[in-house]
Amino acid sequence: MAFSQYQQRDHDVVDYQLYEVAGFPYMARGPQPTPGRRSLGIIGAGQSLGVLVREPYADMIREGYDIDILNLSVGGSAPRLYLNNPIAFELLNKTSACIVQVLSARSTTCSYFQTRDGKNMMRPRGSTLPFVPGDTAWDAMFRNEPPQVSALVVKELQRNWVEEMKAVIRSISVPTVLLWFSKRAPGPTRPLKDYRAASGVYPQFVTQEMVDAVAEHCDHYVEATGARGMPNVLTNRFTGEPATVFLGDSKQPKGEDNYYPSPEMHQDAFAALVPTLELLLEKSDHETAL
Amino acid sequence: MKQLFEPGGEGRVLEFLSAHSDRFQIVASPKFISDLYYIERDNPTAFAQNLKIFSIASLSSLASISGEQDRVMLENRVVHVVADSEGEDDRLALLRNLHPTLTFVGLCRDLVPAILARSAHRVTEDLSALPMPADLLVLFATPRSGSSLLGDIIGQMGFGVAREHLRPTTLELLLCGYKFDRAEALRNFLRLEAKDGWVSTKLITHFVQEFFAEGGKTDWLFDALKGVRCHVVGLDRHDRIAQAVSGAIAAQRKMWHHFEGGKQPELKDEEIRYSFDSILSRLSSYAQQGAYLKMWSDFADDLPTLWYEEDIDGQPFEAVARNLQNIIGLPQDRCRDDARFETGRLRIASAVNDRLIAQFRQDWGQRFGREFTTGRA
Fold it and tell me: How far are the Cα atoms of B209, B308, B310, B356 from residue B239, in angstroms, in the given order?
């Protein structure tokens, strides 16, 4: 049975309309595509899943272009999650095009950490203690290891991320759009004084140089940057009243979300995607007609 | 938290949770678990084989702790020990509210005090319902001044053995950033430790000094002790050389108390090595501790103080008990008539102590050209 991705936690705020995708270990956000209809694929993390947002950019694309969406985004995903589940590529390669969100590098394969199922739950290799969220694991590593170790691990991580993202892109045969969806712009290599400084906000540890190395293998690149509408104030979808959800690594009850893109940021992402979608989907129409 | 989870650590939390892993399991925040990783790295076997730890983060929406687990856990009366660096008390309240049929206790607020009070089996009782002691007897002592002997005598008198509760483990816990209700933890300890309304404890000066030097706060301490009568007695030693030699010998023998459960000293008398510098180093440290004790005595407008030479060394136990009673006014009718006091005199110092003391005095005279004089600290 596939994992249900936040629905139980976020039940009062959003209906993710989750459905099972045969062979894929995670439920996908609906509405479920209708067989035979033209569709657009998306792979990404919680941002593209639209966590805590009732109308994510995927819905705007669906309504704006009258196209079904096969959204295989998984919260906390790393490139390895998709490489471990090639069924995802089989399905995506039947769509007209695929948006590939720039994923975080924090749970990419590296020699220091062991991850669980290619997601953002980690622990040092060799430990038998429970997995913890990536931010917590990395923060502890920076605090407890000498700077030389942190520097080596980050370098290895970034190198592996580029290779794994390229492997993901190569596995997709339809046109690809690499989407940067973040509060920050990609930037230069960051200082390694502590975890927060070294990683930056989502997508953690990813720099401009890394994005460029992956983007040259994609058909298009779109940047959606900004923090409009943050924090996302949570409301009960049944009553309209304020709602609380257990958020963050420490699972504290919160009435607003500061991490995932707000509804306004999704609007901005859709707006940034439009020119590329016009090109892609018009081309796709022609190819279909021919 | 390192001291709590090291094998052989004074807090004995690791040993306790390992020995009772069929009944006690930890429900921990991610940050707490990540702190344990680096302790585990040094002690992988102790962790891998025994501890049962669940992560709050991996229990998605916390709902998975109930359901099927409820039935099993209730049947086995499992106790969930809550550990959350960012606020143990809030997390405990939240879990109790969400899962009223399960049993939760706080790691630092409930379990550690129960272990320190040697009453871990009582941790699931409603500790807040237990009575607080009316009186607290505090022995405030410099090192190697006869404090453990006096602590035992206090126990035999019926006021509870004055054990050394403030040690590296408790000190680390009180000073670390882990957020928990320190006042309630102290109250839980006092409630469990109390015998007939009394608790006794021993504070060694260098641990108290370290507590304040590291920024230890006292608001929770005064909050916890509201309504408790505190009787404080100082204990020191005039002869700093004898004090330092006692410490040097104990360090070599690895025996710090006059009675360690029948343990045999690791070295025979003739194997004890003499080192002028080692004794001098201790001498300097213990003299500082004596000055620290005097500072508190001055703050308290003359803290009642017992001196090892006059009030303990070579005295019958009954006389020591009488000295203590007189100096801090312990209630006569509270002292046990059937206390098993030994009739002989007590003298811990041996020929090897005398030999090292004499050698040190001689060397001092040779190096500094004058006799070492001892007087009141």
Answer: 22, 9, 11, 13
Q: Is A23 left (phi over 0), alpha (psi -120 to 50) or beta?
A: left
Give the nearest partner residue to B58 out of A130, A144, A246, using CB atoms. A130
Contact status, residue B181 vs residue B118, Cβ threshold 8 Å: no
Residue A123 sits at the chain B interface (C-beta within 8 Å):
yes
Residue spans of beta strands (DSSP E) within chain A: 39-43, 68-71, 98-101, 113-115, 121-124, 132-133, 176-182, 220-225, 232-233, 245-247, 252-254, 256-257
Distance from C-alpha of A149 to C-alpha of A72, rounded to nearest angstrom: 35
| Rounded-to-integer distance, Cα B150 and Cα B159, Å | 12
CB B63 within 8 A of CB B102: no
For the four alpha carbons of B184, B185, B188 and B189, in that order, the dihedral sign comes to negative
B contacts of A8 (beta carbons < 8 Å): 60-61, 63
For chain A, the residue count is 290
| Cβ partners under 8 Å of residue B75, min gap 6 | none
| Rounded-to-integer distance, Cα A86 and Cα A93, Å | 11
Record the tokens describing residue A175, joined without a space. 């046109």
Residue B331, preceding peptide bond in cis (omega within 30° of 0): no
| ipTM value for the complex | 0.85
Interface test with A, best of B2, B14, B31, B34 (most A CBs within 10 A): B34
What's the Cα-to-Cα distance from A3 to each of A75, B34, B92, B115, rounded to whole Å? 11, 25, 28, 40
A251 to B84: CB separation less than 8 angstroms, yes or no? no
Question: For tokens 């089989």, what's the residue?
Answer: A90
Exposed, middle or buried: residue A27 (CB in 10 Å: 0-12, 13-18, 19+)? buried
Report the distance separating Cα B91 and Cα B103, nearest Å. Answer: 13
Element spanning B26, H or E: strand B24-28
Positive or negative CA dihedral for B25, B30, B33, B35?
A: negative
The SS3 call for residue A4 is coil
Q: Return the bridge partners of A220, or none.
A: A177
Rounded-to-10 torsion of CA B168, B172, B173, B179: 180
Q: Do B47 and A251 touch (CB under 8 A)?
A: no
Q: Provide the 8-state DSSP code for B111.
A: I
Mean pLDDT in runs of 10 for chain B (377 residues)?
A: 76 84 88 91 80 68 50 66 93 87 91 93 93 95 91 86 87 91 96 93 93 93 94 93 92 71 65 92 94 91 87 82 81 57 52 90 91 61
The Cα B294–Cα B302 span in angstroms is 8
Alpha-carbon gap, residue A272 to A224, rounded angstroms: 6
Q: Are A66 and A10 contacting, i.e. CB atoms less than 8 angstroms apart?
A: no
3-state SS string for A239-278: CCCECCEEECCCCEEECEECCCCCHHHHHHHHHHHHHHHH
Instruction: Give the predicted TM-score (pTM) of the model.
Output: 0.85
Angle of helix B276-299 relative to helix B240-253, nearest 10 degrees, comes to 120
SS3 readout for B174-243: HHCCCCCCHHHHHHHHHHHHCECCEEEEEEEHHHHHHHHHCCCCCHHHHHHCCCCEEEEEEEECCCHHHH
A104 burial level (CB within 10 Å; 0-12, 13-18, 19+): buried
Helix (H) or strand (E) holding A208: helix A208-215
Task: Give the dihedral of Cα atoms B276, B280, B283, B287; nearest 10 deg.
Answer: 160
